[in-house]
Structure prediction request, 281 residues.
Amino acid sequence: MKRSKKKKPKEKSIKKPQHHELSKQELREQRRRQRKINKRKRLMKGLITILIILGVIGVISFGVYQAVNLGIFNVAEIEVVGNEIVDTQTVVEASGISIGESIFLIDVNQANYNISALMNLDELEIFKIMPNKILIRMAESVPICAVNYDNKVYYLADDKKLIEDGEYLRKTDIPLIFGSDAVTISEIGKEVAVEPYWRFDTVMNILKDLKNDGNLGKISEVRMTDVNTYEIVTKNGTVFILWDYNNYLENKAYIQTNLDKNTSNMIINLAAGTKPVIKPR
Prediction:
C-alpha cells in the first residue's frame, strides 16, 4: 500500500517594505533641522562654560576683596639683602615703601629709582612676594678705602666716587685713610675731592697696587703724616713708612715678603735710606 506523500505547504514570500526615497527638498530640510539642533547644543555648551568662568571669577574677586579689607595684602615685612655698608633702615627709607601699604599699590620701578638716586650700587632688584612681603636685593659697589675726616667716614671706589658716608666704620676689611686736610663731596656716585690732592693720589695708587696683588685685606690704615711721609699699617700691627709711590715700588718685594710672613708689631722705615730701619713698636 503506497503512502501518500504530503505536499509541503508553500512558504509565503514576505515582502520587505520598500524604503521611501527622500526627495532633495526633504533631504535639505532634514539637514537644516539637524544643523539647528547642533547649533543649539553648541550655544548651550558655550553659555554653561561662560557661566562657570564668571562664577569662578566672582568667587576669586570676592575672596580678594575680603582679603584686601582684612589687610592680608598690606606690607608686613621689608627684607633687604646684600647691604654691607648701607644699613637696612636707610635702604627702606630711601625706597619710599611703608609698612602697612597695600602691596598692589607699590610702584617697584619708582622704589628702584629712589634707591639708585641715593646710593652707588652695582645691582638692585625689588620683588613683591605675596601676600605681604617686599624683598630688596642689592649689590653695593666695592670700596677700595674709607676716608676718615671730621668725624665722618666716606667710602670710595677705585675711581674716587662716593659709595656711601656715615658716622662710623661699618666695613672693616678695607683700609681707613687718615691725614686729609679737607674732604669735599657733592652726592653719591660723584667723585670726592680729598686734599691735599697729590698726596691722596699717591695713597690711591698704593691701594690699587695692593688690591691687584691681593693684599688690600691685610691693610688696616694708611696715614698721610705731617712730615710728608706715608704710613701703611697692617692688621698685624706692623707699620711701613714710605716717602712716595716710587719708594713703595722700590720696596714692593720686601713689603710683600713681610705681608706673606705676617710680620707683626714692627716699625719698618723704608724712607730712611737705602736699607730698611726696623724697630719694634
Remarks:
- Helices lie at 24-70, 88-95, 108-118, 197-212, 245-250, 252-260.
